[in-house]
Specification:
- The chain is α/β, with parallel strands linked by helices.
- A seven-stranded mixed β-sheet has the order 6-2-1-7-8-10-9, sandwiched between helices. Strands 3-5-4 form a three-stranded antiparallel β-sheet.
- Helix 7 links the parallel strand 1 and strand 2.
- The longest helix has 22 residues.
Length: 268
């Protein structure tokens, strides 16, 4: 299987998965390597034979969908976003929740991969709100059960912690060649196996993070459907954070843009 054959195959297959070529174009090499390993495991000689298999197996389409997922994750990924969240957005959300009498403050981390994002949020509240009267409840979802196993284990290589504030590293303890999050910092995070294209956790939420997934890799019609669901899952005045280089595919009356990647649900 050469590179041109793989690209041609992906351009045919991705729309059928609700994905878009533009999002996967830069990481196509990684996806093509996975496809090659899959063909070898199935003892297939080429992608023509694989397309024939897809024609008679819905289960294989699900396997292909998993092969096309790219998970790049670490603590405090996109430092500027988390800095803004810690210094400006978190205090605003906390104050609003206290005024309304909402307890706890609820957060959804969509496409959480191996858990670095929701655990970053848990550490943010633990280390910056020690005397706060506002508890936090974090729901983290992903469609890949293997990643969720890693997330619940909460052990990471040193490279995953490289952007983490020095003082927050006290939340980890070394174990072999990894650093494992101490149990008391895991209790506010609940992991659920869900595909955001089909399911959403029970809301509403004061803050939703949906970063570097839907609005990078999914096709526009899927993006629009998901965006509507995200808006409905927010409380009045709640915040939606996308990836640093993402934006919604169209204007949504319920969502007020504050930055290209930050939206607020309009007050009702």
């Amino acid at each position: 299987m050469n590179g041109a054959d793989c690209v041609s195959f992906l351009q045919w297959a991705l729309p059928r998965l609700g994905l878009r070529w533009q999002g996967l174009r830069r990481v196509r090499g990684q996806v093509c390597k996975r496809l090659k390993r899959r063909l070898d495991a199935l003892h297939l000689d080429n992608l023509t034979e694989y397309r024939a298999l897809l024609g008679r197996s819905q289960e294989e389409w699900q396997r292909l969908d998993a092969l096309c997922r790219i998970s790049i994750s670490r603590f405090c990924r996109d430092h500027e976003v988390f800095h803004l969240l810690e210094k400006e957005l978190r205090p605003h959300l906390k104050d609003q929740a206290l005024v309304r009498g909402d307890k706890p403050l609820r957060i959804w981390s969509a496409g959480c991969a191996s858990g670095e994002e929701p655990y970053t949020l848990a550490l943010m509240w633990a280390f910056t709100d020690r005397l706060s009267r506002c508890d936090v409840d974090i729901v983290a979802t992903d469609s890949d059960p293997r990643l969720l196993v890693r997330a619940r284990r909460a052990c990471y290589p040193p490279s995953s912690l490289r952007d983490l504030p020095i003082t927050w590293r006290a939340a980890f303890e070394p174990q072999d060649d990894e650093f494992c999050l101490k149990p008391q910092h895991r209790t506010s995070v609940k992991f659920l196996e869900q595909d955001i294209r089909e399911q959403t956790p029970n809301g509403p939420f004061h803050l939703i993070l949906c970063r570097n997934l839907v609005f990078t890799y999914f096709a526009p019609p899927v993006q629009i459907d998901v965006a509507r669901g995200l808006a409905q899952a927010l409380v009045s005045g709640g915040l939606l954070l996308l990836g640093a280089h993402e934006s919604l595919p169209e204007t949504f009356p319920a969502l007020e843009p504050k930055r290209p990647w930050l939206y607020r649900r309009r007050q009702s």
